[in-house]
Specification:
The complex is a heterodimer. Chain A has helices spanning 16-28, 46-50, 52-67, 78-93, 112-116, 119-128, 150-153, 163-170, 194-210, 221-229, 246-255, 260-263, 271-279, 284-287; strands at residues 2-5, 32-35, 73-75, 109-111, 137-141, 174-175, 215-218, 243-245. By secondary structure, chain A is α/β, with parallel strands linked by helices. In chain A, helix 1 crosses helix 11 and helix 3 (52-67) packs across helix 4. The radius of gyration of chain A is 19 Å and the shape is globular. Chain A starts with a strand and ends with a helix. Chain B is an all-alpha fold. Chain B has two domains: 8-103, no CATH class; 111-179, no CATH class. Helices cover 52% and strands 0% of the residues of chain B. Chain B is built from eleven helices and no strands. Chain B has helices at residues 13-21, 34-38, 49-57, 61-65, 69-72, 78-82, 89-103, 111-126, 131-142, 149-157, 171-179. In chain B, helix 8 (111-126) runs antiparallel to helix 9 (131-142) and helix 8 crosses helix 11 (171-179). The two termini of chain B are 30 Å apart. Classes of the chains: A alpha/beta, B mainly alpha. Chains A and B meet through helix 2, helix 3, helix 7 and helix 9 of A and helix 6, helix 7, helix 8, helix 9 and helix 10 of B.
Chain lengths: 288, 187
Amino acid sequence: MKLSYYPGCSLEGTALDYDHSVRAVCLELGINLVEIPDWNCCGASSAHMTDHEVGMRLPMRNLLLAMDAGLDILVPCAACFQRLRAADKALRADPGYWDLRKYTPDFQIIHISTLLARPEILEAIRQRVQQPLTGLSLACYYGCLSLRNPRITGAPNWEMPENLEKIVSATGATPVAWSHRTECCSGSLTLARPDIAHKLVGDIIEAAKKAGAGALVTDCPMCQANVESRQMERIPGEPLLPVFFATELLAAAFRGEYPVKQQKVHLVAPAILTDFFAQSGPAREEAV
Amino acid sequence: MNPEYVSPENGNEKFLQKLDTMGIDVHACFQCGRCSSGCPVAEYFDLQVMEVVRLASYGMEDILLASKTIWLCAACETCATRCPNEIEIAGLMDVLRSLALKKGVVPAEPRVPLFHRSFLDSVRHWGRTYEIGMIAGYKIRSGDLLSDMKLGMDMFIKGKLKLLPQAIKAKDEVRQIFSGKGKEYER
């Protein structure tokens, strides 16, 4: 399988390791990624929140760049995914308004979990797992923008999504049933109103803890950064949960180890995964 | 809010026309309250989401542009998703923020638009987000120099913040988008 790849700015910065794990997992699964040449920022969320034209034209430039390859576009960032989908929808509805004579590419814009949760990919994942993550209880956390709103994202189960649970189950770990899977973490407000982010993240962590989860698993780089960083102000004694990318779990399960380099990028110590690989199975020595 | 003033008779027709051309049908609201009850930031709002929609349908643009709510909305799209009449409420919030900036309305939550401006300056300049530059720009503009200093240092030490920007080749194309080239200039 060959796909166009739009990493987005986070995956060059705060979520650089997400880019690495997406590429590693796709390589392992035989998915060939072709990065869109000279892609630009999609503007999420500041552009569309303050200027409709800029908010549409930034992602549109990327779609026009991807037309040459004509391949389906894989997007690991939920915010970028939602903006590219919104731009694609607007272009298809009225290309003339956006100064194009026609716009009829047959590519799809696909968020990473939608790809990984396809039945044939799940089967490939199960076959490649070297070290099943048996016994780990994890809370799948979707956040907002890979799901909402469904008129843009095309998500089939926006209130009760299943993709992350399917992926986590394929690694052998146990997804917990919990309340805050699709609640907002207020990532777009986190710098300007850290107090709001602190409150919302606190609610999410408490809910995951109550359901018995030892960590969160997400597919959004905004959520990963915000939910880990806004736990830093929690008072001693309050639970802290690391937030893993789904592809980070997959990469570890495929390799049978959780590399030290990867452990170090977390702001909340990923002890649950470090300890797991230190304690079980034949591959753990390499991890330490 | 002056109750005498809040009336469709005092509404701004141009504002209603703009919503109409953008396909935001605020008149379809029957005040069921699903938008407000699901909003994750509702407790920080001065106007609840269902009030925003009703005031918009009256054309009460000035009240809306002066509110905290338009800046504290996190664009999570829960409201638009759950609206039984599929009103594009998140799109309405986008229009309100954009109008407030164009009209120079003093923002009730000034730090939020300063963040947006810092972020977009970075994109305009490099074509991609330059996180350290964006954060520094926001800190200087907002005067909020102290909060998150430790967090920023921790992230830098962990290699999460790149020292240098990742510029694209066709920076001019992105700058043209920001300069509003062509017919879109009038919109």
